Amino acid sequence: MPSDSVDKLNKILDVLEKSGKDRNEINKIRTLIDLGKLSEALQKIREINGSNAGNFSSKDSTERKSNKRNNSRGNNSKTKNKSEKDKKEKQKKSGNKSDEINTDDSENINSKKKTRKKKKKIENEDVKNEDSEKTNNTEDYNTEEKILEEDITTNEKNEDDFWAEDAEDNNWDSSEEDDIERADEEEQYQETSEDDEDERDIEQDHDDENDYSDDDDEDDDEDLLKKWTGEDDGEVVYKEEVKKQESIFPESLRAEDLEKTYVGLLLNNPKLIVKYYILFEECYFDDQSLLNIYKSILFTEGGKYTPEIAKKGFSFSVDNNETYRQKQQLKSEISAKECNPEKVYLELRKIFIIRKSFLEEPREDIQEKIIDIRNYELYDQMSADEIKAAIVQVSVTQKFKQAVLSENLTDFLERGENNLTNGLALPFPIISSVFKGIRKGETMAFAMPSNSGKSRFTINIAAYTAFVHKKKVLVISNEMSEEKMKLCLITTVLNNPEIQKQHGQVLSKTEGELLEFKFRPNKDAKVEVDDNGFILQNENETRREFVERLKKVSDEFNKTIAVTDWLNNQINNSIYFINITDHTNDELKKVIMNYYYKEKIEYVFYDTLKTDTANIGNGEEIKRTATILSNLAQNFNIFIFSTLQLTESSTMPINLTVNDLAVSRTVKEVLDTLCLIKQIMRDDLDKYEYSLEEVDTKFFDLKKYKDPDERYYACVIDKNRAGAKPKLLFNLNLAYNRWVELGFLKLKDEKWK
């Protein structure tokens, strides 16, 4: 792509930026130019030039700077026309500074006319003739647009004859705005009328003009010429102009050193481009000068090595003295480093992929999650394809309600602001021995009838894994809400003897007492209590006031709060929670992978294993879901626990088989372990007995508890890849969510088998 068109576009952008246009939009247009999309860039320029933010014109720019001068004088009401006599007096007092200014300006303008010709002679018209000047400048700008569009379409111009063509064609140049300004300044100065201002004000006015002329005209024009022509004889500071521009990426997605290292490696060894190239659609340099150098490598330094697919979509680079010096500096800097090209290439590709997704994602909440991928614990180990997958996982995961169950529990309990109306390892030594513990790479399932405690059993084991084994845990639920799960978690942590050893508080509180915010007073406390001995909240007492009073009169309350505060601080072994009700199998998979990459969670608990929403009622689809979970467990070495639904059959609990599953029994084929659990009804308790050892002569009867929360459950191990499949007996106190493995279960009389 001809470089003259590129230069013209960039010059227009420079002036638009000076006129106050949106810098972010201008930077995006510069990116389009660097990518060779000149027609699109021109269209964008037209769009922002015609926006409400203010149309570009030399007159507008002149007015802004003129107003700046007038404001600095502090007297906008001065008359324009001053006498020639006053002018001469001021020149005399200031040491003929005005002559110096006029001389410098004249020389400066003549110097610039050598490279480019003004397209319009500045008329000696009144400054306030806005409509006329805006019309003229608009016509000039439109003329430039037509010429530029023709250049882009025909590709007939080249960089070598740019300045000559520009002079002949009488094209608009951004430096013209400065020339107009100087002419206007001279006119204003010559045409000012007499007034009664004292000599001090006149001298101050003149000093302000001198300062403006020196700073805003001469220096600016010289800097622009140096930037456009690359004729800067001073020391080159790498990426000086680019650093002045605001990046379109957030701080966490910037990687200047990595970009420089990658490009520097290619410059020192162009043959690397054969393997380590970046395709057009994934190329997102933050440093546009480095993008230009990369394109140069594709077509010049590495031209004979670069695969054609790598060049597709890219335009030719713009090479000048500045670019050459940058290349030399980069080669020198990177040659002294010991770098692994493959690692540098992979890291840069990963960042480019994230940058691309960041720019394409319209939702800010998902943008933040995409950025956060760089903070994943396993980020360094992820491939470029896994980064792409993680981005998709983020989008899917954001669809569902998420929380960290072990956070903010104190506030949750004290405020009582929830939607409820009512309200690891438990040391299961036999099951642990039989299954060889819960092992990564395996899937385990427990099947129970509806409303028999599946979710409570799940949170029990999850809590044990998190707080005794100190592992990060993910709980996925399609049945219980976040509020219910939080209340169940507090209940479990308060009452579990093994977890009590971790937090140091020994007490017993039922889920109902926590839900109703009931606490017992100290023995010596003089407070009003209900019939069950719980402290009553006063009629006009707020929840916060009640909490403050409980702190003073109830050790039970303070112990409870100590436990919830302890839970809040378990950062490294948190229980993450996501409610996933309406989902597909693919979404379930991506949710798990997102948490695996993001938090390195290796223990997942899924309550309840069901088909995806579109296939509810299809028994065979449950096997498909279980297969996905099994593959995830094996491929990523994670443990996945799930619950299943049992039918409401008449089968005695001790005689349960896979045929009692509410789903297809083929699900058993893909699971590593499967337990079938069912409550033993009160009227059948006398038919059972249990022993502490599988082969034993001492047996115990099952008690008939008066408390309805005290229950017995038969546990039939139906599948165990590790070996034995005994039948076990559990005691459950539902109110405290306390599960106790009692021993080996058997029938007293064979006739009941």
Major sheet characteristics: 12 strands, mixed
How many beta-strand runs? Answer: 12
CATH T-level fold name of the largest domain: Rossmann fold
Instruction: Give me the CATH architecture of the largest domain, please.
Output: 3-Layer(aba) Sandwich
Highest-level CATH class of the largest domain? Alpha Beta
The tally of domains stands at 3
Distance between the termini: 87 Å
Work out the helix count: 28
Overall, the morphology is elongated
Low-confidence stretches: 52-85, 90-143, 154-244
Structural class: alpha/beta
Instruction: Give the strand content.
Output: 5-15%
**Strands ordered across the widest β-sheet:** 1-4-3-5-6-2-7-10-11-12-8-9
What this model shows, in words?
There is one protein chain. This protein folds into three domains: 3-229, no CATH class; 242-394; 409-519 and 554-675, P-loop containing nucleotide triphosphate hydrolases (Rossmann fold, 3-Layer(aba) Sandwich). The chain has 28 helices and twelve strands. It has helices at 3-18, 23-34, 38-49, 58-73, 84-93, 97-113, 130-154, 162-168, 176-191, 199-229, 240-244, 256-268, 288-301, 308-311, 321-335, 341-360, 364-372, 384-397, 409-415, 429-435, 454-467, 482-495, 497-503, 511-515, 543-553, 555-568, 585-599, 619-636; strands spanning 401-404, 443-448, 473-477, 575-579, 603-607, 639-645, 673-679, 688-691, 700-701, 710-720, 727-733, 738-747. The chain has a twelve-stranded mixed beta sheet. The radius of gyration is 39 Å and the shape is elongated. The chain starts with a helix and ends in a 6-residue tail after the last strand. The model is unreliable at 52-85, 90-143 and 154-244 (pLDDT under 50).
